[in-house]
Specification:
The chain has about 350 residues and is α/β, with parallel strands linked by helices. The protein has 11 helices and 15 strands. The strands form 3 sheets. Strands 12-11-7-10-9-8-15 form a 7-stranded mixed beta sheet. Strands 3-2-1-4-5-6 form a 6-stranded parallel beta sheet, with helices on both faces. Helix 2 (about 40-45) links the parallel strand 2 and strand 3 (about 55). It is globular, with a radius of gyration of 20 Å. It starts with a strand and ends in a 7-residue tail after the last helix. The model has no long low-confidence stretch (mean pLDDT about 95). Bound molecules: 1,4-dihydronicotinamide adenine dinucleotide (NAI) and (2R,3S,4s,5R,6S)-2,3,4,5,6-pentahydroxycyclohexanone. (2R,3S,4s,5R,6S)-2,3,4,5,6-pentahydroxycyclohexanone binds near residues 157 and 173. (2R,3S,4s,5R,6S)-2,3,4,5,6-pentahydroxycyclohexanone (ISE) binds near residues 172 and 176.
Length: about 350
C-alpha cells in the first residue's frame, strides 16, 4: 500500500520532505500540494516532476478523496487549523513544529485526536531519530552512566534572518531541545529560567542573542541550554549528559581531519538540513511504516506537541520576567499513556 500525501506549505522544509518522499524513501507518494503562494506550489510540482494536484487551500486539499495523510509545513500560526481539519476528517498528519502556537491550540488537537479513537498525528521532532541522540538515550536507559544529574547543551546557528526575534529563540529554536531532552532523561520539566549574556553585535535590534536557559525537571536534573543564532562559524548542536557513574556526549558529525600549515582541521556543517538529514529521513519513513504496520504513527505525539508548547510559553515568560517560571502540565490522558513511542 502506498500512502498518498498532500503537502500544505511548499517552502524550504515542505520541498525537502517532498524530495525525500519522492526520491529517497519508500512507500509514499505526493498526490496533492497547496501554498498560500500558488506559484510556489506549482513550482514544487514542476521541480520534482510530481503527478499531483495543486489545491487552492488546505481545506480543499484535506477533503480530497485520494489524500490519506497531510504534511503540514506552512508557517507555525497556520498549523492548528490544518491539523484540526485533517484529524476531524480522520486523516493522518505529519506536522512540523510547532503543532500549534499555543498550549490551548495543542490541547484542542489532543482532544480531537482522542475523539477519533486512534493516533493520527506525528510531530516533526526529528532529533529523536538522530543516531547520536538515540545512542545518548541508550547510555541513560541502560544505566551505563548512572542516573542523569545535569545536562549541558548548545544550539548555535551561523546567522538568522532580520525577522527573527528574541521569542523565536524559544519557539523556533530551543523547541527542539525542549522536546528531545525530556524524552532523553525520561522526566518532565518543573521550571525554566533565562539569562542574557552580553549581546553579540551581529544580532538585530529586536533580538537578544545569545541566551542561556536553565530547565529543571521534576526529578531535580538541571539542564543548561545555550541558544546562539549568530555564532557565524557553523551550525553546531552539542549535548553532554552528566550522570552519577559517567558522562555521555552527543557524537560530532563525522568529517575528515586535515593537517596543513601547522593546523589540525575538521569541517563544521553550516545548515540544519544537512546536520539532521538522516533523522528527517528516518522520521518520515517510520511515519509511513508504522501506519502500514499498526494503523497508527509511532513518533512524537500530539501530547509531546502540547508539552513543548507549555514549556515554550513558560520560557518566553521567563525571558520577560527574568525569574524562575513554573512549567505546569495538565494530566497526561490515558490515551497517550498506552502508546509507548519507540524511535530506535
Ligand atoms: P518557509 O517560509 O520556507 O515555508 C513555509 C511555506 O508555507 C511558504 O511557502 C508559505 O507561503 C506557506 N504557507 C504559509 N501559510 C500557509 C497556509 N495557511 N496555507 C498554505 N501555505 C502556507 O518556512 P519553512 O522553513 O519551510 O518552515 C515551515 C515550518 O517548518 C515552520 O513551522 C518551521 O518551524 C518548521 N521547520 C522545522 C524544521 C525542523 O528542523 N524540524 C526546520 C525548518 C522549519
Ligand atoms: C529552524 O526552524 C529549525 O527547526 C532548525 O532545526 C533549528 O536548528 C533552527 O535553529 C531553527 O531556526
Amino acid at each position: 500500500m502506498t500512502l498518498r500525501f498532500g503537502v500544505v506549505g511548499t517552502g524550504a522544509i515542505g520541498r525537502d520532505h517532498i524530495r525525500r518522499i519522492t526520491n529517497t524513501l519508500s512507500g509514499g507518494k505526493i498526490v496533492a500540494v497547496t501554498d498560500v503562494n500558488q506559484l510556489s506550489a506549482e513550482q514544487a510540482v514542476e521541480q520534482y516532476n510530481l503527478d499531483a494536484t495543486v489545491y487552492p487551500d488546505d481545506k480543499a486539499l484535506v477533503a480530497a478523496q485520494d489524500v490519506d495523510a497531510v504534511i503540514v509545513t506552512s508557517w507555525g500560526p497556520a498549523h492548528e487549523a490544518t491539523v484540526l481539519a485533517a484529524v476531524e476528517a480522520g486523516k493522518y498528519v505529519f506536522c512540523e513544529k510547532p503543532l500549534a502556537t499555543t498550549a490551548e491550540g495543542c490541547m484542542r488537537i489532543v482532544e480531537a485526536e482522542i475523539k477519533q479513537g486512534k493516533r493520527l498525528v506525528q510531530v516533526g521532532f526529528m532529533r529523536r531519530y538522530d543516531n547520536g541522540y538515540v545512542q545518548l538515550k541508550e547510555a541513560i536507559d541502560t544505566n551505563y552512566i548512572g542516573d542523569p544529574l545535569m545536562v549541558r547543551c548548545v544550539h548555535r546557528n551561523p546567522e538568522v534572518g532580520e525577522n527573527y526575534t528574541t521569542e523565536m529563540a524559544v519557539v523556533d529554536t530551543l523547541i527542539h531541545e525542549i522536546d528531545v531532552l525530556h524524552w532523553l532523561v525520561n522526566d518532565d520539566y518543573k521550571s525554566v529560567q533565562v539569562v542574557f549574556p552580553r549581546k553579540t553585535r551581529n544580532a538585530s535590534e529586536h533580538l537578544q542573542d545569545p541566551q542561556i536557559f536553565t530547565l529543571e525537571t521534576n526529578g531535580g536534573i538541571i539542564i543548561n541550554a545555550e541558544v546562539f543564532v549568530n555564532c557565524k562559524y557553523g551550525y553546531d548542536i552539542q549535548c553532554e549528559v552528566i550522570g552519577e557513574e559517567g558522562v555521555a556526549y552527543l557524537p560530532e558529525v563525522p568529517s575528515i581531519v586535515t593537517r596543513k600549515e601547522a593546523k589540525l582541521g575538521t569541517n563544521i556543517l553550516m545548515d540544519w538540513k544537512d546536520r539532521f538529514i538522516n533523522a528527517y529521513d528516518k522520521e518520515l519513513q517510520d511515519f509511513m511504516d508504522s501506519i502500514k504496520k499498526t494503523g497508527e504513527p509511532n513518533g512524537p505525539t500530539s501530547w509531546d506537541g502540547y508539552i513543548a508548547a507549555v514549556t515554550a510559553d513558560a520560557a518566553v515568560k521567563a525571558q520577560k520576567t527574568g525569574t524562575k517560571e513554573p512549567i505546569l502540565l495538565a494530566e497526561k490522558p490515558d490515551f497517550y499513556q498506552k502508546r509507548v513511542v519507540e524511535t530506535v
